[in-house]
Amino acid sequence: MVLAEELAKQQKSISVAEFFEKNKHLLGFDSPTRGIITTIKEAIDNALDACEESMVLPDILVIIRKTGSDTYSIAVEDNGPGIMPEQVPFVFGKLLYGSRFHQVRQSRGQQGIGISAAVLYAQLTSGTPAVVISRTGAKTKAHRFTLMIRTQTNEPEVLSHEEIDWALPHGTRIELEFASSMAAKKRLLEYLKYTSIVNPHARFRIEIDGEGTTFERVSGEVPPCPRSIKPHPHGIELGILKRMAAASDLPVEVFLQEEFSRVGKKTASEILALALIDGGVTASSLSPPDLKTLLATMQTVRIPAPPAQTCLSPIGEELLVEGLEKEFALDFVKARSRAPGVFSGHSFVVEAAIGYGGRLEAEGSAKILRFANRVPLLYQQGACAITQSIQSINWKGYGISQAGLPMGPVLILVHVASTNVPFTSESKDAVASIPEVEREIVLALQELGRDLKLFLSRRDRGRIAEDRARAVCAIIPDIASKVAEIVEAPVPDTSAIEGRIMRRVVVKRGLRGDHVSIRVDNHTAKPVELTLYDISADTGEGATIPPDFVSDLDGETTKCWRVALPPHESFLTEYPGSGGGSLSVQGIDESQMVLLNLDE
Amino acid sequence: MVLAEELAKQQKSISVAEFFEKNKHLLGFDSPTRGIITTIKEAIDNALDACEESMVLPDILVIIRKTGSDTYSIAVEDNGPGIMPEQVPFVFGKLLYGSRFHQVRQSRGQQGIGISAAVLYAQLTSGTPAVVISRTGAKTKAHRFTLMIRTQTNEPEVLSHEEIDWALPHGTRIELEFASSMAAKKRLLEYLKYTSIVNPHARFRIEIDGEGTTFERVSGEVPPCPRSIKPHPHGIELGILKRMAAASDLPVEVFLQEEFSRVGKKTASEILALALIDGGVTASSLSPPDLKTLLATMQTVRIPAPPAQTCLSPIGEELLVEGLEKEFALDFVKARSRAPGVFSGHSFVVEAAIGYGGRLEAEGSAKILRFANRVPLLYQQGACAITQSIQSINWKGYGISQAGLPMGPVLILVHVASTNVPFTSESKDAVASIPEVEREIVLALQELGRDLKLFLSRRDRGRIAEDRARAVCAIIPDIASKVAEIVEAPVPDTSAIEGRIMRRVVVKRGLRGDHVSIRVDNHTAKPVELTLYDISADTGEGATIPPDFVSDLDGETTKCWRVALPPHESFLTEYPGSGGGSLSVQGIDESQMVLLNLDE
């Protein structure tokens, strides 16, 4: 038997940097291809968070340059508030160092791992240090660092530090070099596109080997930065409560009100009365059994949900619809922001949108866009609670075919925003399965599904009606000529009737004696706006409705009417003249219109 | 704009214990129900690893007691080598502390996180410390500790430490209390059952509130402990090579041979010649560009795969088949161990088994058993590369219906053993998607699928033959009575003919004058073994084949023959007597036999 002494010799402490170096796939660095996307994502998350905190409109530049057969240099630059020079080595050169870990509010980054993991990955694969430039204001110079991470200790190693001139008044730039490939270029651009949809106040520019693409901002307003709130009594665990109480010299009654969200004097008294604890004793003096009772009572007393409005920053229905419409020119799109919910004391809100048709592919599975705290999720779609919730819905009931996922030209967007998004892994690829969250996703999508069903059945009814109308129109000319034959009259023009049956706009110009008439009939169910251009030798003077605009050229006069017609209404103007020339119509699709120039 | 100074004030270091406390779901502590299973799994992983290292046959006891309305006490005790008292606080009270992190070999635990995470979870949910007892040999006393983890620093806090008497000569016991539920009791027993299948040398006893279950060991041999090997040149990254070189004062040529697996003098010279590096210079003096070239060359030169036999410990085909047969009484079962493979320089081996019929459920999806390094994987089946590989196979081609997963009474077992199993998350629930590994899984299952197909088509042929035989048998009595009528003879007994047509065993006892005859005909295609019990007033003396065993009781004699018959052979014995009494047969299923006692 090998003795315990021998085994003990091998026991040692492992630094968190060593751990993540060996397990880099846990942080999204599974492959060189993915490494490049993860790095850019981490840098952009940080830039957007910092800009939001300092109320700056983000302007973010990403530069990718090939530096060797399989090495790339990646630089990400922002116009955020910058980082104090003494903090730079820790922010970039130490894992688990950050400002948002203990804050209860929605933010993209939280653990202080992401960007230093990118630095770790760079030095592991290319052996080169990170280059960081940061400037905190126009009055100070910029600071330039080259730095690495000492893996065995998880401490930063600064190789150089100097003050330099820099074009930006404030901001941060990080440059890394690592073994990678641009195999995922399409996915990278997709990531930027989706990031820009949910961050309409930010501008992104990306240059890949000199070739640039810009994702312009569409809003000039910085969204309000979510504010940190106190923990909610329903989301606390005994170990944490013990720590909080031990650190407080307040009377319990005040401690509860000061340290927890949504606990006022009344709630505090109610909790303490039920727990049989004297509100006057100091929190730090509570015994372990007292704390257990206190916790149990806190969690049974009814307390309002945490104040989601201040700590969360949803995208909003309007913005979701706009972003999707712009990107996919959809036939149908609708968004729904659900009311905030709570799981284990963490606030969350689910937003969802469904799109149909447009530029979406008609075949194959629906397009799924997943977001968490305004960050697109690109990997592990199958493992994500969002996907599983989508699959759990019976889409056939909404007129959509389904094979696990819904099929056809459908887009489904889900955004989960929370003070603590429950990811399945530290690479933040997929949302873990939390019943409260899944329920909200399903409810939001079911609401939207009903709207989609309505749209699809209306469209189908429209199609049936159109088919019938088309059949009727096909025989009208025959009927007309038969009737004309019987009554021995000339064959009438039936286009206007066809227009009416087909629910189109009919524009008709004709000559009645020495008068020219122009008539527009709106047979559609919608208001229409169009512009008539009537070009002939007639001047149009004396028209019953005078033209809005007249211009002469080489003896021909262009007479122009702007016509706005409610459904089923008509426009008619007449002027003295002899006709001829041409009539054209602008502002309406040709397929929606019948144009008859009868005096030609 | 908020200035960088203000943001800097919130920046701080986060301890790895704080990180995992907040993100406990990453380690498999997502819910109280799961917490109990994860804790037991971590303790058992450690126990099995330690027993293997010290060549002890593991004897593991798990005790679960309800201590409150929703609190449970969990104790896991093993007979391993024990832990040196000075190590105990670190092993249980500090995350990222362990002995196997830097070893290149198959082991269950690796990061030194699991059991301390359980301690963290216990103190978080119940506020109580862990109790650890450990004894390293019969000559020393046992040590008993109560300890917690200081979350903010990730350092152990020993609350008490004393020497005590303990029944076991060596071993370790950990006891934790936490908020949980026994909702997952079935899954827990399943976990133990599967663990015992792949660790046949271990005995597990579990007591849940006094009710005990034992999973007995079926093998008395400790499997050889995988030995640690040096890293393979194809699996190394620049950052690691730099670190290894910096720490070595050997000439590069020797450095390569000493520090890497499978590099001999010839390979070292080849690498150095191609890299244009002088083999005589000290490794630590190599410049960064030299190291880059060296790495690139190391990875292009052909080098044999790492020595999988020493560093891996597969289960073996025979053991897999035995374990499954015992558990599910399968109609068909076959296992395959593939030859070792390599991904990124890490050795791995894939083993698979397919079972059919028996106690498996006839309806629904196939039963999937996933293992990694001899540990069953219970969660996140959908996210696992094993499941995805199974789904990628066209099972219909093997006669199995399929809806994503194969359907019907099918069991599929896959074991991935590796020096570095690529898990999708630190909770070790699912194997990540690595093309080399997935390819081996698919190949193993395809081979087994072909065998299963053969079995199924033979069985179907057998069924058709049986249906025909049954039809023939149905008319035999009619034919017999018709023929008897014609030839005016008594109706003969046709059972033996039926037995022959139906491919069964026919056992027939009859009286010929003053002799009793017993005849056994094996009409099946398999050898049979059975025991005849002939009970009557006859003594059986003078039998042509004497009984193997005779016993008298109250004037009746039991005569007993053990009969082993190859396919299509017969057994016949005769003895003087007058018959009567009874004949019974043991050792063969009734459905496989026709028993005729003709003298009754």
UniProtKB/TrEMBL annotation, chains A, B:
Recorded catalytic reaction(s): these are: ATP-dependent breakage, passage and rejoining of double-stranded DNA
Per its record, what are the GO molecular function terms?
ATP binding; DNA binding; DNA topoisomerase type II (double strand cut, ATP-hydrolyzing) activity
* Histidine kinase/HSP90-like ATPase domain: residues covered: 31-153
| Keywords of the record | ATP-binding, DNA-binding, Isomerase, Nucleotide-binding, Topoisomerase
* GO annotation, biological process: DNA replication; DNA topological change
| Known EC number | 5.6.2.2
Q: Any idea which positions bind ATP?
A: N46, D78, S99, R100, G109, Q110, Q111, G112, I113, G114, I115, S116, K428
- First-level EC class: isomerase
Q: Which CDD domains match?
A: TopoIIB_Trans
Q: What Pfam families does this protein's entry cite?
A: HATPase_c, Top6b_C, Topo-VIb_trans
Annotated function: Relaxes both positive and negative superturns and exhibits a strong decatenase activity.
The family note in this entry says: Belongs to the TOP6B family.
Q: Which NCBIfam families match?
A: PRK04184.1, top6b
This protein's assembly is summarised as:
Homodimer. Heterotetramer of two Top6A and two Top6B chains.
Q: What is this protein called?
A: Type 2 DNA topoisomerase 6 subunit B
Taxonomic classification, please? Archaea, Methanobacteriati, Methanobacteriota, Stenosarchaea group, Methanomicrobia
The encoding gene:
top6B
